[in-house]
Amino acid sequence: MFITNAYAQSATDSAASAFGGSGFEMIILFVPLMVVWYFLLIRPQRAQAKKRDEILKNIRRGDQIVTSGIVGKVTKVIDDKELEVEIADGVRIRVVRSAISEVRVKGEPVKADAA
């Protein structure tokens, strides 16, 4: 036999240590990576989504909005999910809030009816 048992064991030990050795060493490497991933990617995306939801929730009559290239003025808030938007004189369409990409100009607050 050309290869001894001691030499064969030494080769497997060096291969195991080259790939991280134990599971504890892998955890020590991946935990800081996950923390950095959270603070650089996940947390800012959540903050941006929260800000967008707040902007969409606060749309009111008179706001100018952009949706898939169409610019219009909100004429009526139908419910929590839909708006009526005037895109030209006398041309009104219904738009789902989630389709709105930008709110350009904030309108005046809705006046309370004296009735």
From TrEMBL:
UniProt entry keywords in alphabetical sequence: Cell membrane, Membrane, Protein transport, Translocation, Transmembrane, Transmembrane helix, Transport
Compartments where found: Cell membrane
Family matches, as Pfam families: YajC
Family: Belongs to the YajC family.
Protein role: The SecYEG-SecDF-YajC-YidC holo-translocon (HTL) protein secretase/insertase is a supercomplex required for protein secretion, insertion of proteins into membranes, and assembly of membrane protein complexes. While the SecYEG complex is essential for assembly of a number of proteins and complexes, the SecDF-YajC-YidC subcomplex facilitates these functions.
InterPro entries: Preprotein_translocase_YajC (IPR003849)
Subunit-level organization: Part of the SecDF-YidC-YajC translocase complex. The SecDF-YidC-YajC translocase forms a supercomplex with SecYEG, called the holo-translocon (HTL).
Record protein name field: Sec translocon accessory complex subunit YajC
Residue spans crossing the bilayer: 23-42
Gene Ontology annotations of biological process type: protein transport
Entry GO CC: plasma membrane
Recorded topology in the membrane: Single-pass membrane protein
Main localisation: membrane
Membrane is among the record's keywords: yes
